[in-house]
Amino acid sequence: MPDTGTQFTDRSVVITGGASGMGAATAREFTARGATVVIVDVNTDGANRVADECASIGIRPTVLSGDISDSAFCTQAADAVVEQHDSIDVLVNAAGTIHRADSLGTNDDDWRRVMGVNIDGMFYLCRAALRHMTAAGSGAIVNFGSIWGGVGSAGSTAYCVSKGAVHQLTRALALDHVEQGIRVNAVAPGEVNTPMLSSQRQHAPTPADLQELADATIPMKRLADPTEIAKVVVFLASDDASYMTGEIVHVDAGYTAR
Ligand SMILES: NC(=O)c1ccc[n+]([C@@H]2O[C@H](COP(=O)([O-])OP(=O)(O)OC[C@H]3O[C@@H](n4cnc5c(N)ncnc54)[C@H](O)[C@@H]3O)[C@@H](O)[C@H]2O)c1
User: Fold this and answer.
1) Could you say which of 50, 57, 100, 207 is the most buried, measured as most Cβ atoms within 10 Å of its Cβ?
2) Domains defined along the chain, listed by start
3) Active site residues per annotation
């Protein structure tokens, strides 16, 4: 059960990628704190499943089904939220995808897919939300970066590049809109136990494989639970983080401390 610390009653929170993993955990955390959540995801069934779960702890999130790499969809989605809920108080960009290959194993379509979702889509939705946030003179955006946006990793070229771009998008938007009362931050998670962690591998990893990965790469020697990242997202979106903008907050059990 998500804890119910800082309250978001009467605030509208848009969460991309809310159908799965950390986006879903974030949707649950905000719902438990009284927020009016809107899940934006290409996976309609998954988004509705998460919305149904959330209904038992708060206001059932609405679902906007679509592909964030489509600029027109992002504009329509942001406009629809404001039409229905008057404002976008918080935008969380959690939607993402990965291609596990080096440059030689990355064809043009693989490259475009990763960039299209992880950076184009995030930019489109930030811009669409910012049109409303700047008019309102307030708002908070939390982007999902990655440890691999700051340090390199072998075997995921496009993903590393896209997450580095997320970190720079976060800093640039923070500076562009600081005088309009809008804060823009990012979380940079380490290895988190979500469907993405097991996806696009030759064999689905067993629990023993995942523990081996954790033992080899993570100082705390365990994967994160998605909720452990969602709680940091909620903090960054809340007034408790009122003096933070343009920050990339690593939530990685010491991975990048080395
Ligand atoms: N899992 C990890 O270890 C890890 C580590 C660091 C950063 N991240 C990042 O955290 C974020 C969440 O990852 P996760 O592990 O929860 O992933 P996940 O695969 O569990 O969830 C990703 C969600 O994004 C949605 N999505 C994908 N493409 C979309 C599109 N074009 N339009 C709309 N929705 C789309 C999917 O349907 C899914 O619901 C991602 O940005 C990811 O890159 C993940």
Assistant:
1) 50
2) 12-193+225-248 (3.40.50.720)
3) 159
Please tell me the distance between residue 19's alpha carbon and the centre of ligand 1 in angstroms: 9
Helices (H) and strands (E) in the chain, counts: 9, 7
pLDDT at 201: 83
Cβ–ligand 1 distance for 196 under 6 Å, the answer yes
Sign of the torsion formed by the C-alpha atoms of 230, 23, 213 and 156: negative
- What integer pLDDT is reported at residue 225 of this predicted model? 98
pTM, entire model: 0.97
- Cβ-based neighbours of 161, under 8 Å, separated by 6 or more: 115
Task: Indicate whether residue 116 lines ligand 1 (CB < 6 A).
Answer: no
Query: How many Å lie between the centroid of ligand 1 and the Cα of residue 184?
Result: 19
> CA–CA separation, 109 vs 89, rounded Å?
35
Taking only the tens place, the pLDDT of each residue in 8-56 is: 999 999 999 999 999 999 999 999 999 999 999 999 999 999 999 999 9
